[in-house]
Amino acid sequence: MGKLDGRVVLVTGAARGQGEQEARLFAVEGAKVVVADVLDDRGEALAKELGGGALYAHLDVSQEDDWRAAVAAAKGAYGRIDGLVNNAGILRFNKLVNTPLEEFQQVVQVNQVGVFLGIKAVAPEIAEAGGGTIVNTASYTGVTGMAYVGAYTATKHAIVGLTKVAALELAGKGIRVNAVCPGAIDTAMTNPAQLDPGADPEKAANALDEYYRKLVPLGRVGKPEEVARLALFLTCDDSSYITGQPFVIDGGWLAGVSIV
């Protein structure tokens, strides 16, 4: 018996990184997974690899029409939606005073508006199915600050707020809403070398570990599989009395400064 047997869960940004690992783990746990992304080739390949319980849907989370189409595809294939993982997001590095308005708005449109549109589009379907879960991907920076990622940090704080409001408004419909707040995780977002076909992934991961060894009490960068396990916990019945909460998964980074 899997922890998600019989459930249909839509995961955004599922073609790679944390979303990919969430899709893989959810499928192992018995869910029918809607792999949603703008990376069509990778998304389609992943859905095919996961087998008959998976479906690929093209989804630009910043576009309301794309959400309508993805929901229609999921309902057409499975007749229902029981869960949503709002994972898709982008990161841009810049000083606030040097950030072009267009760049700030792009980050807001994908990260913040994307989560809002996901809740708006999918929550009614989850309610119709009898209840379920929404997991929003915020960030370590959603509960603190970080220089040079002002637009990103602003959106992640907003996601934590949206999570709390949605939890309050949707509890009566049997929908639990929580947020995962990852710190440094070894994905293409924090480790662009993953996108370079000529790069050595092990060497790149070791370089990240070296960088974060002094910052993170556990002495290493996190793995997307670890975030996926937290998302699974918040999606399955193990977390049945939890809603409206941000869950930091950062190797202890937020705990403070160590002098050791």
Automatic annotation (TrEMBL):
It is an enzyme of class 1 (oxidoreductase). GO terms for biological process: steroid metabolic process. The keyword Secreted does not apply. Its EC number is 1.1.1.47. It comes from the Bacteria. Keywords: Lipid metabolism, NAD, Oxidoreductase, Steroid metabolism. The keyword Lyase does not apply. GO terms for molecular function: glucose 1-dehydrogenase [NAD(P)+] activity. It holds the Pfam family adh_short_C2. Coiled coil: none annotated. Belongs to the short-chain dehydrogenases/reductases (SDR) family. PANTHER family: 3-OXOACYL-(ACYL-CARRIER-PROTEIN) REDUCTASE (AFU_ORTHOLOGUE AFUA_6G11210) (PTHR43180), NAD(P)-BINDING ROSSMANN-FOLD SUPERFAMILY PROTEIN (PTHR43180:SF28). This is Glucose 1-dehydrogenase. It comes from Streptomyces acidicola.
